[in-house]
Amino acid sequence: MQYRSRPAQAVIDLNALRDNYRLARNLTPNGQVLAVIKADAYGHGAVQVARALDKLAPAFAVACIEEALQLREAGVRQPILLLEGPFCVDDLYLAAEHQFWLMLENPAQIEMTLNTLLPQPLTIWLKIDTGMHRLGLSAEQAHRWYPKLQSCAHIADNIILTSHFACADELNNDATAKQIAQFEQLQTRYAGAASLANSAAILGWPAAAKEWNRAGIMLYGASPFMQPHPQADQLKPVMTLQSRVISVRQVKQGDKVGYGASWLAKRDSLIATVAMGYADGYPRHTPSDTVVMVNGQPAKLAGRVSMDMLGVDVTDVDSIKIGDPVVLWGSELKVTDIAAAAQTISYEVLTGISARVPRIYIGC
Ligand SMILES: Cc1ncc(COP(=O)(O)O)c(C=O)c1O
Prior knowledge:
Elements: E1 9-13, H1 14-27, E2 32-36, H2 38-43, H3 46-52, E3 60-62, H4 65-73, E4 80-82, H5 89-98, E5 100-104, H6 107-115, E6 124-127, H7 139-150, E7 160-162, H8 175-187, E8 194-195, H9 199-204, E9 212-215, E10 239-251, E11 256-257, E12 263-264, E13 269-274, E14 291-294, E15 297-301, E16 310-313, E17 325-329, H10 335-341, H11 346-351, E18 359-362
Parallel strand pairs: 1-18, 2-3, 2-9, 3-4, 4-5, 5-6, 6-7, 7-8
Antiparallel strand pairs: 1-10, 10-13, 10-17, 11-12, 13-16, 14-15, 14-17, 15-16
Bound molecules: pyridoxal-5'-phosphate (PLP).
């Protein structure tokens, strides 16, 4: 057992994760839900998340082969989709050996795949650019390459047509409906399974549900939307980022707190210093006055977040002492709100929790 005394930790509730997965499945009853566990399952631990979803998720998706190999080495047996496809020929051999599914999205990748003889057939997801203009083939390119892939001996018959939304988190933006229409136009030419929806679409765009739906952020209990939403509000936060008070001091009206002396005491105040900083992944740009729960009571960040610590104005919190528990986000404090205060998104904040923060798993 590794020695630990620093109290900063991320508690990961695997029951909440499974409940969020079931919500995704219930919202797309005619299809299957692939669990997106790239970037170490958005900071939650890919191996532990894959194991927790073992009996539920028929397949997983990651960004690259390094992430997929880590899962195979840990004994994960489900198909694993590489969302950016192969980067080189060796990726193709490894994909065939380990039964990774490949997203193919540009002609160079497709040519490399067609020209590499492989011992086992590969399952291919063919990505179409329906308007995001990041990855994917145009409709014309799809018409050119689809038949070649279909007749290739080392490519499995069931090619899955797929695309990705640029604005599905904006429920009033008609870009998503346009992307769906463009995709469905292409589907009239190519029979077979398809995949469009990410979390925002699973929750808010039922017309996007297809045979495969790709749930990422919602699995971790964070809403992709900025506003309240009846389905998204059922999500359960999976990560609680917590720590403890390590020092308490009285400051006088007019005193300043922290680096740059940016926080000014408007009255005599009590400041608690907490073992949590930007080197743990708590965003440095989170402004003073952002809520932090101390002893189960709301208090406010005071001064700049430093590398390993942050200050909280606990003047109005009852009976503060060293060792008191602090929650930075979790069920009482949404990570989406903290991310918004720091002018970022929950995805960045969750994936930014650093390796030095131990992940403690509950509900195993
Ligand atoms: C191709 C693709 N599908 C699905 C997802 C999951 O998205 P979300 O986390 O918004 O559900 C991502 C994430 O970036 C992605 O790149």
